[in-house]
C-alpha cells in the first residue's frame, strides 16, 4: 500500500468516493426524472445510474431503452443544488484528505452548479488546490484529459508521481489512461456492480490505504 509521501499529487473523484447522498434524495430525483420522461426507474436502476455501477451511464441508459440526452436534460433541470447539498454527507474516512501534504485535487463528473454548493456546505473546499468538473470541453472519464488538465492546474509535469482515487471503473480507467496510479475505493459490494474493478490499489475504505503507512 502507498503512503501519502509516495506521491507528489493526489487527485480524487467526488461523488461516491469522498461524499455520498442520502438515498431518499436519490429516489426522489429519479421519481421526478421518470415523471418528466414518462417512465419509472426502479430502485436498482436508480442505484446503478447514480453510482455508475454498470460502467458508462450513457451506455447503460441506451441498453435500458432510454435516450441519454433526454435523461440528462431532465436530470439537471430537476436537481436543486441546495437540496442536494443538504442531502450530501462526507465519508468519515475522507478526513485523511485534509491532512495530505501535497497538491490535492478533485476531478468529478458532478456538474459545477451541483459540486460547488456541496463543497461549501461540507466546508471542505479548502482541502483542494483544484476542482475540475468534467464537461464536453474537458472530456469525460475514462478519457485522461480531465486528469491531465487538473495536473496542469497544480503545476505538475509528466515526471510527477501522481495518483487518482475513485469508486468507479471509469475512474480507474482515467488514471491508467493518464499514466497515473489508480486507487479503487469499493463503496459497493462487487455483486451489486456485477464485476470487480482492479486498480493499482483496491480498498474498501481510505482507512485501509492510509493506515497501512503505520504498519
Automatic annotation (TrEMBL):
Keywords: Hydrolase
Keyword Oxidoreductase annotated: no
Residues that span the membrane, as ranges: none
Molecular function GO labels: hydrolase activity
Enzyme Commission number(s): 3.-.-.-
InterPro entries on file: HAD-like_hydrolase_sf (IPR050155), HAD-like_sf (IPR036412), HAD-SF_hydro_IA (IPR006439), HAD_2 (IPR041492), HAD_sf (IPR023214), PGP-like_dom2 (IPR023198)
Homology family: Belongs to the HAD-like hydrolase superfamily.
NCBIfam families reported in the protein's UniProt record: HAD-SF-IA-v1 (TIGR01549)
Record's protein name: HAD family hydrolase
Amino acid at each position: 500500500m502507498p503512503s501519502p509521501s509516495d506521491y507528489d499529487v493526489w487527485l480524487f473523484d467526488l461523488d461516491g468516493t469522498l461524499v455520498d447522498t442520502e438515498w431518499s434524495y436519490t429516489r426522489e430525483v429519479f421519481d421526478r426524472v421518470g415523471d418528466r420522461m414518462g417512465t419509472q426507474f426502479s430502485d436498482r436502476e436508480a442505484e446503478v445510474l447514480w453510482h455508475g455501477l454498470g460502467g458508462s451511464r450513457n451506455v447503460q441508459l441506451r441498453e435500458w431503452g432510454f435516450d441519454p440526452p433526454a435523461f440528462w436534460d431532465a436530470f439537471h433541470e430537476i436537481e436543486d443544488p441546495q437540496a442536494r447539498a443538504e442531502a450530501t454527507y462526507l465519508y468519515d474516512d475522507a478526513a485523511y484528505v485534509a491532512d495530505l501534504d501535497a497538491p490535492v485535487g478533485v476531478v468529478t463528473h458532478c456538474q459545477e452548479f451541483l459540486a460547488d454548493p456541496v463543497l461549501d456546505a461540507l466546508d471542505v473546499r479548502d482541502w483542494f488546490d483544484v476542482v475540475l468538473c468534467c464537461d464536453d470541453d474537458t472530456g469525460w472519464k475514462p478519457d485522461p484529459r480531465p486528469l491531465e488538465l487538473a495536473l496542469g492546474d497544480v503545476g505538475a509535469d509528466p515526471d510527477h508521481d501522481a495518483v487518482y482515487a475513485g469508486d468507479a471503473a471509469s475512474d480507474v480507467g482515467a488514471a491508467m489512461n493518464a499514466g497515473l496510479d489508480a486507487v479503487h475505493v469499493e463503496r459497493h459490494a462487487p455483486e451489486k456492480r456485477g464485476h470487480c474493478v482492479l486498480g493499482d490499489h483496491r480498498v474498501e475504505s481510505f482507512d485501509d490505504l492510509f493506515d497501512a503507512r503505520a504498519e
